[in-house]
Design goal:
With 202 residues, the protein is an alpha+beta fold. Helix content is 38%, strand content 25%.
């Protein structure tokens, strides 16, 4: 599934610590890895400079370009299989072939629409913001005081980190659902370090 790149969460944390002198903080987009969601370096806000910022999108193994190629190939196969039946007068079979092609197209369209949702996590010295945006554009936000917030983990000996949640004053919120266990572990380590820096006075 993947060609690994250096830990971008580590890169984000290092950039935040060196923001006053580093020119790399102006980058707009970085990739977590080739198969997972984009990580967005949030522009610096003077009043509340982000210590950690990430945007997590659902993984999709098929790009839009690959989808178009797949559909063209499917159309060619359907035409090649349907023309002989049509010439023999078995037109109902052609109808079923076209129906199969239509269902395939609608399924992929639905899959791409679901991928438009994302989760944003941003930590500043003042607050920890978690924002969920659904594929329909509906938003929901949670704001935590970083001084009272900690991470809890549920690990499986065989499958790794299965659940990551923020806990603050009795409230619990599960985050990073779309990441794989190794990616979730890396995310947890970097966010945990960023929280520790904020609690220690940055």
């Amino acid at each position: 599934m993947r060609r690994r790149e250096p830990s971008l969460f580590q890169d984000l944390a290092r950039q935040s610590g060196e923001a006053a002198t580093s020119a790399t903080s102006d980058r707009t987009w970085t990739r977590y890895n080739d198969s997972m969601a984009a990580i967005k370096v949030t522009p610096h806000i003077p009043a509340a400079r982000p210590v950690f910022a990430a945007v997590i999108r659902p993984h999709r193994s098929l790009s839009r370009g690959s989808f178009q190629t797949l559909m063209w190939l499917s159309c060619l196969v359907t035409a090649a299989a349907g023309i002989p039946f049509l010439m023999l007068g078995f037109w109902p079979i052609v109808g079923f072939l076209v129906l199969d092609l239509t269902i395939l197209y609608l399924a992929f369209r639905s899959n791409f629409r679901d991928a438009e949702g994302f989760e944003e996590v941003e930590l500043t010295p003042l607050e920890l913001l978690v924002r969920h945006v659904t594929p329909r554009g509906e938003e929901r936000e949670w704001r935590f005081n970083p001084l009272w917030t900690r991470l809890t983990r549920e690990n499986d000996d065989e499958y790794g980190l299965q659940r990551l949640a923020l806990v603050s004053r009795g409230e619990s919120l599960v985050i990073a659902r779309e990441l794989s266990p190794p990616e979730r572990e890396s995310f947890a380590e970097e966010l945990s370090r960023a929280l520790s820096r904020v609690k220690q006075g940055y």
